[in-house]
Amino acid sequence: MTDAFSSLLQGLATLSAPGMFPIVAAVLGLVVGSFLNTVIHRLPRMLRHEWREQCAELDGRDVVATPRYDLIAPRSHCPACKTPIRSWHLVPVISWIALRGRCAACSASISSRYPLIELGTAIAFAIVAVTFGAGPEAWAALLVTAFLIALAVIDFDTHYLPDQITLPLLWIGLAASLAGDVRTAVIGAIVGYLSLWAFYHLFKLITGKEGMGYGDFKLFAALGAWLGPAALMPIILLASIAGAVVGLTLVFFFKRSREQPLAFGPFLAAAGVFVMLVGQNAPGGLLIKDWTGF
Predict the structure, then answer these.
(1) Are strands 280-281 and 289-290 parallel, antiparallel or unpaired?
(2) Which end of the chain is more exposed for a tag (fewer CB within 10 A), N or C?
(3) Whole-number Å distance between alpha carbons of 173 and 285
């Protein structure tokens, strides 16, 4: 037993070696990206079903029993013909290419977004691995990256940042700070939430419109918990500039209505990943960033 355990530790050490770790992270990213596709597709539908049931209960109506639907059941299936997808057709990226982007049973088109998210997650994981090297900070950064990818795509699709993802990201960040700088993480979470909360109410008071949602406050608080209060200003500046550029481009070149809202979560998430990658790690912090030298 001791020899087997020692062999396992040696294997893990080999995989965590500087030269191997980005490759391991990229492969892990493909697998995680496949799971994120499930979360992105199913979680909003799960929430809508839950809200309908709650509304029915409040109205005194009978709740209609429905088949189980969550992140595990039912099995992945073709949305067109409902045929369950075989396990060897779920290999990230490769299966989509082998099937030429079509269902094996009915030849219905399969969105290219699935392999793009898998490939994008793999690339992001590899970049994180190269940036941080093998160690606790790298694994923490990979976790944050996965959460942010899921939140960005869900918000892009639905204009909603689910508490089921933002709050765990916040609390895990605070828990992770026990290995680093708890005080800074708590201050980051408080400043992150209150700053956007204050901006929201000020903007609404001046314009009578809602500039963002409460999910943005919670996401910004989570970023503050993970990266510290000093990273919040660069994040909000980058996110605001990127959002303005994209918004103006859509209005002037793609005839998008000025009144049509633009999800802010994807820009916060992208800016958060950027700051996490380029900021200087502060002494004593797991992912806390020191921007005093910028």
Answers:
(1) antiparallel
(2) N
(3) 11
